[in-house]
Amino acid sequence: MSLRVDKLCWGHPVPGGGWRQLFANFDFQSPTSEFTVVIGSNGSGKSTFLNLLAGTLRSGSGSIRLDDQPLQQLPDHRRARRIGRVMQNPLEGTSPGLTIAENLRLAEGRRRNVIGWHGLRGIHPNQADRRRYRELLEQLGLPLADRIDTLVGQLSGGQRQTISLVMATLGHPQLLLLDEHTAALDPKAEAMVMDLTDRLVQQLGTTTLMVTHSLSQALRYGDRLVMLHEGRILGDWNARERQHLTPDVLREMYGAARVRQTN
């Protein structure tokens, strides 16, 4: 689904009085299936932009349309069916007291009207559900297929984030938002989650925005790289143009003191 943002405005009060207008008449477009990586210094508006798209924050004015459907006019439950999201903290996307299978069923039920499945009752998967989930995890190459009855709270951070990612993409959401979803992981887990991310996005063809502080990720993944600065697009490169960029060049664009030195 294509994403179109027109004349978006959003600001917030600042301590001591006053107002900061972060986005002012902000425009952005992403065609169907495009994988956009978003970078920028702290306070540039990266996570705020995802929050506005997800509806966690409400814009002051402007429009956000997904395949020409105005997202701001949808109630939360209908917007949630169209959008998958993975947060930075692996603890946020899953329920630790439920098993892997129960978490997957919970995510599946959230989009049941979109994918045409009706009559899901409760969060307890039956044998057919558990078999489907096991097969899904096997197809994705995840070493969790034989652990679907394990409580998610017993998984490592990287394993938990892979389950969050699978949950976010169940039912083929129209828009996938990834908000620094590897920032809290060690290098090995980060590589595992990014490999799964890349495969899922390519397999599903979901329009995707990924915010990251990792310049190596920014230069390796996605069809497009966008740099934000104070609510404005400072740079916009397709995959071919991105080949001429380096981490040092990107740092110079918005100040080495304001970007985490990630290689």
Layout of helices and strands:
Elements: E1 3-13, E2 19-30, E3 35-40, H1 46-54, E4 61-66, E5 69-70, H2 76-82, E6 83-86, H3 100-110, H4 112-115, H5 127-139, H6 157-169, E7 175-179, H7 187-204, E8 207-211, H8 215-220, E9 224-229, E10 232-238, H9 239-242, H10 247-254
Parallel strand pairs: 3-8, 3-9, 6-7, 7-8
Antiparallel strand pairs: 1-2, 1-4, 4-5, 9-10
Helix pairs in contact: 3-6, 6-7
Describe the model.
The protein has 263 residues and is α/β, with parallel strands linked by helices. Helices cover 35% and strands 24% of the residues. The chain has ten helices and ten strands. The protein has helices at 46-54, 76-82, 100-110, 112-115, 127-139, 157-169, 187-204, 215-220, 239-242, 247-254; strands at 3-13, 19-30, 35-40, 61-66, 69-70, 83-86, 175-179, 207-211, 224-229, 232-238. α6 packs parallel to α7. The chain is globular.
Short description:
The chain is α/β, with parallel strands linked by helices and 263 residues long. It is built from ten helices and ten strands. A six-stranded mixed β-sheet has the order 6-7-8-3-9-10, sandwiched between helices. It has a four-stranded antiparallel β-sheet with strand order 2-1-4-5, with no helix packed on it.
Count of DSSP strands: 10
Q: CATH superfamily name?
A: P-loop containing nucleotide triphosphate hydrolases
- Which sequence of strands runs across the widest sheet? 6-7-8-3-9-10
State which percent range the strand residues make up: 15-25%
Order of helix and strand elements from N to C terminus: EEEHEEHEHHHHEHEHEEHH
Assign an overall shape: globular
C-alpha end-to-end distance:
32 Å
CATH secondary-structure class: Alpha Beta
Write down the Rg: 19 Å
Largest sheet: 6 strands, mixed
Helix-residue proportion: 25-40%
CATH topology grouping: Rossmann fold
- CATH level-two architecture: 3-Layer(aba) Sandwich
The number of helical segments is 10
Poorly predicted regions are 113-120, 256-263
Domain module count:
1
Structural class call reads alpha/beta
Mean pLDDT: 90
